[in-house]
Amino acid sequence: MKRAFLILLLTASSVLAWADHITGGEMFYTHVGANTYNVTLKLFMRCNSGRNFPDPAVMSIFDKTTNQRFEDISVRISNRETISLTNNDPCITNPPEVCYDVAYYNFTVSLPGSPAGYIIASEVNYRIRGINNLAAGNQVGATYTCDIPGIADASNNSARFSGSDLVMVCADNYFSYSFAAKDADNDNLIYSFCSAYNSTTGGVNGVPAGNPPYSSVPYAYADFTESAPLGSKVHIDPSTGLISGVAPAAGIYVVTVCVSEIRDGDIIAVQRKDLQINITDCSIAAANLEDDYMLCGTTRSIVIDNRATSPLIVSYEWLVFDPAGTAIFTATTPSLSYTFPVNGTYNVQLIVNKGQPCTDTARTKVYVYPGLVPDFNATGVCINNPTVFRDQSTVVSGSIALWAWDFGEPSVFNDASNQRHPVYKYPFTGDKYIRLIVTTTDGCRDTVEKKITMIDKPPITLAFKDTLICRNDQLPLQATGTGIFTWSPGSFMSATNISNPVVSPPVSTLYYVELNTDGCINKDSVQVRVVDQVTLIPMNDTTICSGDTIQLRINSNGLKYAWTPAAQLFDPLVQNPRAVTPATTSYAVTATIGGCSATAAINVRAVPYPVARASADTTVCYNDAAFLTAITDGNSWSWSPASYLSNAGALNPVASPPRTTAFVFSAYENTRGCPKPGRDTVLVTVLPKIIPFAGNDTSVITGQPLQLQATGGVKYNWSPPYSLSATNISNPVATIKEPSENIVYKVDVYNRIGCYDSAFVSVKVYSSVPTIFVPSAFTPNNDGKNDLLIPVLAGMKQMVSFNIYNRWGQLVFSTSAQGHGWDGRINGQFQSTNTYVWMVNAIDYLGKHYSGKGMVTLVR
């Protein structure tokens, strides 16, 4: 049993049901005699969408010669039906529900003869929302049309699409769906994707359509276009109307297919079907093969895959039959890999899940006739002129029986032919991608594509448009392009039919060139001016400062120039070069036009800059002064910046900068001819301010080593030297053997150039063993006296902790930093008079642990 392959069209998700409008449509007609046509408009809508078909709908008829309105006809719904797929197939995972309301509008119209024919159009309300291959934004309308040809083919019956309207596509799975049409006149039919039409009336039902041409809906061009509405992996067969490939992600996609009716090599009408395909997250357990496979090139080997993918497929059986119908090969692999022994038309059969649920069978033909090479050439690249295409395909087996041309003109639909050597006139310029499909008498088919570029006139490139020559000179004119050249006037010219003739006119002459490329003609011209001498007027002699750059200038009609001395010039071959002049120089120039030349000279006098020599850079201490000096042969001078100088106009000012500053000395001499100053610079580096530090005041026990530590400089000197291990280092050790109320040590701190400042440290010396003194009371009243409770360390190297507790044993203050104390506040609140317990832990200078505790009274 071959299961029907279903592709779900024309629906939107239930979430968007409130916005559902029309989900697709088409228009077709039958000729019933005497330029009279029975026309049908067919519209689709999702079942139970809550929307209504237009009733009546307006059919607008336009003459294609002028696109002017001929008639508007109001048509009521003639018939309605509901179509659906009600039985869920157990071999389809996640099958959707498929149900549509269909409305038919039938009417008959008689039309007078028209050379170009007629377009019948009907605009309807908005399409459904949320279409994935359209640009996000507002709702989009829809216009449905049919095409009635002119007088010569007025008895035409339109092609009518014959495929099912109940179809389904599974996301990211291979699918195929036929847009095939039938034609009662047996015209040749060519299929293509084309633009879905927008509406012109803003989505209002029951009003006439706007005049053609109709605009395209806004495609999401990053991934989808009118020629690729389902993405790059889905294609349409131009000969059969079969669309196939790997489906994009789940969603709703508008797809429009145009079928061109070709009669006697000409397209007489184009009919359209517009559908919105709902792609769902489903898969089908099926055997799905292409209609045929072509081995028409250089091999007899093939690999065939099942194009349907589903987790329900568990087994494969492949059979290959020779042209006589005898099975010659079997396989049970997911893919068939086989090399055919001889030429012929073979049959291949695939059965999936044989003898199990969801079994399915597919059959296809394989045409094995290697040696077909499709090819063609094209002559004529000018728009509105004939472009001739010649088939140059070759074949080993059989002969070529059918040709299907697509000339690649995107602006029209009639760019196709089934002749062997067709002729086509392109209406617009640009790159055209031509496709030829050839089919042999053995059934082999292959495709070739090429690009040609159409032009309105061939490009001409001239080496120059206007030039000078000297009388009696010979000048080659240089034009490039593809085609036949013709020059005029032909006098004094070596040849008139080449791209690069040589001319020697006695007087100025305007030469014209014409380029003919396959009937396309372009024209251009070259002005050749003839002179008998070269004009050369130099600038006046001048004076500059020695070593400066000057631009030399001349007024000349010369074509070439040569300057000397070349070593002092940036480019000695240009008309107005720049020159570096360290000493007085005479610059000579020769200007030429062919055999004519002229010379001139420009004298440039170089005057030295005024001498300006300033004293060497220097370094000073913070807030110190620097003495600047300068020497010059100028007659005036100045220093800057002036704000930090005692006298900016003196040769030897005193500088008092607050920070490192560059002082510039400028000298002027206004009698020799160099107006620019000579300059020199003195950098006065100001060292940072010295911040001396001798350490915090402290207390020790007699005989205890005390490590002093000074910072802020690069050199130190301590005094008095009493009990110090050294006086010229930053960190001497003091060992004091006698108790003292206060010993003050001074340290002078020097920077790298000898500037200094001083700091002091006080040391109290106790005669007791190492201990910690804590006052019995303190008065935190912010009078500057006894405001903090601070432990005094005597002979201690480190305080581990100093904690204070209230009468309930709660910790109210804690520190391990020497010199820190309690200010009498708990959580930021001042405390009233009360008694507290203190506990201290420390390590003395011998490394022994010390602890103590006591009472202290806070007095307010």
Task: Describe the protein.
It contains no helices and 72 strands. Helix content is 0%, strand content 48%. The strands form 23 sheets. Strands 1, 2, 5, 7, 11, 14, 17 and 18 form an eight-stranded mixed sheet that branches. Strands 20-26-25-22-23 form a five-stranded mixed sheet, with no helix packed on it. Strands 65-72-71-67-68 form a five-stranded mixed sheet, with no helix packed on it. Strand 17 and strand 18 form a beta hairpin. The model is unreliable at 1-20 (pLDDT under 50). The chain has eight domains: 14-280, no CATH class; 293-368, Immunoglobulins (Immunoglobulin-like, Sandwich), CATH 2.60.40; 376-454, Immunoglobulin-like (Sandwich); 461-531, Sandwich (Immunoglobulin-like); 536-607, Immunoglobulins (Immunoglobulin-like); 612-686, Sandwich (Immunoglobulin-like), CATH 2.60.40.10; 698-766, Immunoglobulins (Immunoglobulin-like, Sandwich); 771-858, Sandwich (Immunoglobulin-like), CATH 2.60.40. The chain is mostly beta strands and 860 residues long.
Please tag this protein with its features:
disordered N terminus; 860 residues; flat; single chain; 5-stranded mixed sheet; Immunoglobulin-like; 8-stranded mixed sheet; mainly beta; 48% strand
